[in-house]
Write a structure and sequence with these properties.
This protein is α/β, with parallel strands linked by helices. It has helices at 11-22, 52-56, 72-77, 79-99, 134-153, 173-184, 203-216, 234-244, 270-274, 283-298, and strands at 2-6, 26-31, 41-43, 62-65, 105-111, 157-162, 164-166, 187-190, 197-198, 200-202, 220-226, 232-233, 250-253. The strands form four sheets. Strands 3-2-1-4-5-6-11 form a seven-stranded parallel sheet, with helices on both faces. The radius of gyration is 19 Å and the shape is globular. The N and C termini lie far apart (39 Å).
Length: 299
């Protein structure tokens, strides 16, 4: 099985590269970063990307798109850049697959941001989409493009809506922010009330989910939630850090909600569970492993 991972130098893309190599897939990587040493790696032009050569000269069975921007605040500040990276890029990849008459299946990494603030939890895939940010809107549009290319051109596609992914190697977002603040600040100040919730999923479980989807999905432009089906508050995650770091620092919430941030998330993962999904990581184990990794990185 030959898999092309676009965005192979990013957090999930890099983890996916190692994961599928361990499964004896033939892995091709693609990103904007220069790398002269990695076998089967292709550098793409960041400003004028053209993916035709990837499918013209290589027989690819699966294309996993891990590329794009992943920041709500930056999407609010630079909406055109976010649209280019998260929406137009998907169009370009699918058009290359169509032009080269490739039979490869396309998996697009979407986001739970497409849901916005749902009125009912857990969130099912057929929930009405109401994103709160340009990032969420552009991810929603990319999903529609995937459906378009299946409906009109019979390109095998699906989108995976990843909830709050974390794990070793991620140097941004909540867990990284918490460790940095516990390490340097006298008090740990966070946005919101602490009662906001997320459905956290370890990157290893994300990849397990994608593997199950490769094996079982119909690839008819459908969507899948990738989460653990559990709701954890931000205050609970902060308390885990405090306990594991044996810290006496005070945790403060400033009661200010950042624009584009949802209040509560919990995924309905019944579609994934029917494929045999069982998480390997609890949030407690995942946070402990993450802290151990960050401590090594900081040495």
């Amino acid at each position: 099985m030959r898999i092309l991972i676009i965005g192979s130098k990013g957090f999930i893309g890099n983890c996916a590269t190692q994961f599928f190599k361990q499964l004896n897939y033939q892995v091709f990587g693609c990103d904007v970063v220069t790398d002269y040493n990695e076998k089967n790696y292709f550098q793409i032009d960041a400003t004028n990307s053209d993916y035709n050569f990837l499918f013209e000269h290589n027989q690819i069975d699966i294309c996993l798109n891990c590329s794009g921007a992943a920041s709500v605040p930056l999407s609010l500040e630079f909406p055109i850049k976010d649209f280019t990276l998260n929406t137009i890029k998907v169009f370009k990849i699918l058009e290359a697959i169509r032009n080269q008459k490739s039979k490869c299946k396309f998996i697009n990494l979407s986001s739970a941001a497409v849901y916005g603030n749902p009125s009912i939890l857990p969130i099912k895939e057929d929930t009405f989409l109401k994103p709160l940010s340009p990032y969420g809107i552009h991810k929603m549009q990319a999903e529609q493009i995937c459906k378009e290319y299946f409906d009109f051109y019979q390109i095998s596609t699906c989108s995976v809506r990843i909830f709050s992914a974390y794990g070793n190697g991620l140097k941004k977002q909540l867990l990284w922010d918490l460790f940095c603040k516990f390490s340097s600040n006298e008090t740990v100040e966070l946005f919101g009330t602490g009662n906001e919730t997320r459905d956290f999923i370890h990157v290893d479980d994300v990849l397990q989910s994608i593997y199950l989807i490769i094996q079982n999905a119909a690839f008819v432009g459908e969507e899948f939630n990738i989460g653990n089906g559990k709701e954890h508050s931000i205050s609970y995650i902060a308390d885990l850090f405090k306990d594991y770091l044996i810290s006496n620092k005070e945790i403060l919430f400033n009661n200010r909600v950042k624009l584009g941030d949802p209040l509560r998330w919990q995924a309905d993962i019944s579609k994934l569970q029917k494929m045999g999904y069982k998480p390997e990581y609890t949030i407690e184990k995942g946070v402990k492993d993450y802290i151990d990794w960050v401590k090594e990185v900081q040495l």
